[in-house]
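Appendix B. One record, verbatim.
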Amino acid sequence: MGHDALLGLLRTSVRVRCLAQAAEVATRAVAASGPDADRHLWMDVRPDRVVLTVESLATASVTRRDIDLARWISAIVRQLGLTIDAEDDGGVPRSSRCLRSRSMPSTSPRSGRSGRR
């Protein structure tokens, strides 16, 4: 599937050549997620990669819907001719990624305090 399971979420990174290509990946991922995008998908869009995270914000866990979304996103990335790299999160060690994703609630989309989704 190409997604890394981390503490109740699925995360993958897609290498891109430019910010426009990253925006295309993000746009297609949102379209594939449909009305569930706001409750299941969050992204970090950068000029060299898009980091996509799938998780049910209602339950803070991975649901069957999240697994389906991860598969659809993987298929879209392959259709674009890009590579999915579950291990690549911008050079941040795996243990730091886990801690970062759970130890900073003020910036987490689940916290409701940051105003971002």
